[in-house]
Amino acid sequence: MTFRLDAFLPYRLSVAAAQVSRRFAALYEAEAGLTIPEWRVLAHLDHSGAVSIRDIHARVNLDKSVVSRAASRLQGAGLVRKSGNDADRRLIVLELTPQGQALMLRLGRIAEAFQADLLAELGPDAAALDRLLSRLAGKETGAA
Amino acid sequence: MTFRLDAFLPYRLSVAAAQVSRRFAALYEAEAGLTIPEWRVLAHLDHSGAVSIRDIHARVNLDKSVVSRAASRLQGAGLVRKSGNDADRRLIVLELTPQGQALMLRLGRIAEAFQADLLAELGPDAAALDRLLSRLAGKETGAA
DNA sequence: GCAAGATCATTGCAGTTGCAACGATTATGC
DNA sequence: GCATAATCGTTGCAACTGCAATGATCTTGC
Predict the structure, then answer these.
(1) Which residues does strand D reach (CB under 7 angstroms)?
(2) GO molecular-function annotation terms (chains A, B) (predicted)?
(3) What are the domain boundaries of chain B?
């Protein structure tokens, strides 16, 4: 028998994730002109409060350099403030500006609505997906 | 309440898919030095037989240009043969060479083993995931 | 039969990514 | 206390991506 790519789980997972991300990315691109890394940094800051680049890099599955450049762009747009950490001067303190917070309020609502639609689309198996994603997330820290 | 990125489905899906893809990509990178697009083209050709770039582009969720360049590299490596279609000379006929077939035999076994491991990791919810991915795949053809 | 439009693969190009330096700062071993 | 190693954020660089031409070929309307 020949190999069937369209029955291969990693491939199907990747395609599905890309499609969902693409659909949602179109929303915040239209709303605020954000790229995916910018959205992730902003969204993480909304919940985490003041935090370093290293922190975001570790939690949000983006390379240090990507976080660094996204943060710079967000700073340029007035959505994020960068300051120095006095206790450890290697670190940078990132936090949302009032404009950043206001934007995340709007984007958060859009995200919730999108997720609700998605869950409706997924139907009764959504709970199983939730469990699966938690299990996968726990597996690989990528720290190797 | 602030927005919680790590409870947001599109984000979690994207991270999980990236991690799974990364793990598997390391395997075929080690085995044959393939990139993700090259793997996809090769794997699709294994099951589809002779087919055009346009066909792969439509089925495998890769841009035309990405498929074109991946096919050229695979041709250079002697894994794929490119020939002209006599009925429609705009089209290119891609097919695996014997070396390509031999490689896919090995990679197919590696892929099956990887998927088996993954399914074991996922446990009893794997069936639900299968249904979900089919549903998502059916939704968006991206033809808009 | 032929002109206008559609389709196909390729290529150019700007933007992004991932990785490996790099300078600056802090932690560790002795 | 001080040299060595580790960590942090940034930047350079090559590779890749996605999009928009481009040239070649086919299809459609008439």
Answers:
(1) A 52-54, 57, 64-65, 68-69, 71-72, 82, 90-92; B 35-37, 62-66, 69-70, 87-90
(2) DNA binding; DNA-binding transcription factor activity
(3) 9-131
User: Crossing angle of helices B9-32/A98-122, nearest 10°?
Assistant: 80
Region B9-131: CATH code: 1.10.10.10
Q: Mind giving me the DSSP string for B4-63?
A: -GGG-HHHHHHHHHHHHHHHHHHHHHHHH---HHHHHHHHHHHHH-SB-HHHHHHHHT--
The architecture (CATH level 2) of A9-137 comes to Orthogonal Bundle (1.10)
Read off the DSSP letter of residue B142: -
pLDDT tens, chain B, 144 aa long: 789 999 999 999 999 999 999 999 999 999 999 999 999 999 999 999 999 999 999 999 999 999 999 999 999 999 999 999 999 999 999 999 999 999 999 999 999 999 999 999 998 999 999 999 998 876 544 333
CA A114 to C1' C15, whole Å = 28
Spell out where chain A has E strands. 80-84, 92-96
Q: Which residues of chain A have pLDDT under 70?
A: 138-144
Q: Is residue A19 within 8 Å of A25, Cβ to Cβ?
A: no
